[in-house]
Amino acid sequence: MLNTGFGNAGSINTGGFNGNNLNTGFLNSGEVNTGIGNSGHINTGFLNAGNVNTGIGNATDAGEVGLTATDSSGFFNTGYGVSGFGNAADESSYGHGVSGFGNTAVGTAFEVGVSSGFFNTGYSEAIGPFALGQVSGFNSGFFNWGTANSGLFSLSKLAIKS
């Protein structure tokens, strides 16, 4: 599940009481949101019901959501389906799904991004059933590096490698 926080029902969330996936903040029911109380997808801000909005209380869609959508919300983001501030998912591959502040995911992996939190750096490595070059990112929390970390400073990896 890779959640950092409390009361999260989805996966790869940072914050509290998020009901879906890849949220940074609180009380978000959509996916890939940064902020509070967003029910749409890929929003940065507060109380947005539409998709791909930056701001407060938007009920309409400013962009599209889906596998082929290239829309992002927020500020200084690169990649597809990114919300928040200063996030980057490598656009040379299927780079998408990042929320939060200062997160990056790079490499030639097929799946790049899928992170939430603060200042996480994803790079491709073999993990679980995935061989080297298949995934990069999948981090939640604060100051993690590598792939599939939650918490602080990649401390979850120390427990696995010990």
From TrEMBL:
It comes from the Bacteria. This is PPE family protein. It comes from Mycobacterium shottsii. The lineage of its organism: Bacteria, Bacillati, Actinomycetota, Actinomycetes, Mycobacteriales.
